[in-house]
Amino acid sequence: MVFLQVALILGIGLFIFIIAFLGIKLVMKELRKKLNPIAEKLGGRVVSGKWDIWVEAVIDGFTVKIKLRPPSQYNRETLYINVVKPFIGKFTVKRRSKLDEIFSTNRIVKTHDPEFDRDYIIKSPVPVQVSPHFQDVSRRSAIRFFFENGFNTLQYNGREFVFTKEGYSKEDIRPERMEVFVKKALDFIR
After folding, report:
1. Mean pLDDT, residues 83-106 taken together
2. Are the beta carbons of 81 and 68 closer than 8 angstroms?
3. Where are the alpha helices (DSSP H) in the chain?
4. Is the pLDDT of residue 2 over 80?
């Protein structure tokens, strides 16, 4: 009797594992179908990891990675554009909110553009070092472009620039549109 109960539990566990594995494979196949045209347009290739898949292309000497994350229980589908390039310090750019006024710290980068500083907040552990990067009008224009097109954050994480958009649409991941996003990302980091 105990043997049958153990066998039943193991059988159910194996069944759940197989279903989950097939589900992951199906999601990866769907993502590959979405990423292949983008890779072709950018002259790159689709790369697969154990649990991840992305487009990787070298454009103007910069390694660009485009990742699409499917929706999960806790997150909406998310688009990431990552550009690998050394930079002098970490930072995060977001739209300014009321909470930023309350929890403001001295680690905020000022651009000396009142309209820009009113709409966006740039936080950095080294604001003096990263501040010169944001004094350039074309870089601030690129930031505006991304936020006007629904991106949520721009950041440098110590290794790469990351442009994040939660809740992307089919229109956003059209190859021509992705080419525009990548061009603007490269304009921002140069």
Report:
1. 84
2. no
3. 2-42, 98-102, 114-119, 127-130, 137-148, 175-189
4. no
